[in-house]
Amino acid sequence: MKLFIDTNFFVYLNSNIDDDLVKRLDALYADLVGENELYTNVLALDELIHVSRRKYGVSHSETMSFIKDIILPAVGVLPVTFNDYLATREIILKYNLRPSDALHIAVIQNNGLQAIVSEDEDFDRLSLKRLWLEG
């Protein structure tokens, strides 16, 4: 399956959080990498850098290393285009999503992806499949 990885998944993998959650996320990532084509976009990477530092105190250099060593070997990074912006306008109005979430959805739709890996329940407003940890 062709999956989009949302920012929150990467932020948790990159941050000092509960050991049990880290183990569950690491296991999910290993499963996803082994069985799917994984993608994200440049906006998600930008959000990762910003949120990791602001919310969890992870330095920019640590996050850049995380992106280079953990994300880029396994996840394709899709560009954000003007066509994605045009679709974003419609998605915001139709689903009342935040602009960045709507832009992620536009990238997903415009690149033929089939699901999103995200804890964000706002994506449940769409018919798009959302994957996250069970229970």
What would you say this structure looks like, in words?
- With 135 residues, this protein is α/β, with parallel strands linked by helices.
- The protein has one domain: 5'-nuclease (Rossmann fold, 3-Layer(aba) Sandwich), CATH 3.40.50.
- It is 58% helix and 14% strand.
- It contains 6 helices and 5 strands; from the N terminus they run βααβααβααββ.
- It has a 5-stranded parallel beta sheet, with helices on both faces.
- Helix 1 crosses helix 3, helix 3 packs across helix 4 and helix 5 packs across helix 6.
- It is globular and about 40 Å long.
- The chain starts with a strand and ends with a strand.
- The model has no long low-confidence stretch (mean pLDDT 95).
Set out the fold topology.
Elements: E1 2-5, H1 7-14, H2 19-35, E2 37-41, H3 42-56, H4 60-71, E3 75-78, H5 82-95, H6 99-110, E4 115-117, E5 129-131
Parallel strand pairs: 1-2, 1-4, 2-3, 4-5
Helix pairs in contact: 1-3, 3-4, 5-6
Concise summary:
It contains 6 helices and 5 strands, in the order βααβααβααββ. The chain has 135 residues and is α/β, with parallel strands linked by helices.
Average pLDDT reading: 95
The number of distinct β-strands equals 5
Tell me the series of helices and strands, N- to C-terminal: EHHEHHEHHEE
Briefly, what CATH class?
Answer: Alpha Beta
Helix content: 55-70%
CATH architecture label name: 3-Layer(aba) Sandwich
Tally of DSSP helical segments:
6
Structural class: alpha/beta
Poorly predicted segments: none
Q: How would you sum up the major sheet?
A: 5 strands, parallel
- Rg from Cα: 14 Å
Distance between the termini: 22 Å
Integer tally of domains: 1
The name CATH uses for the topology is: Rossmann fold
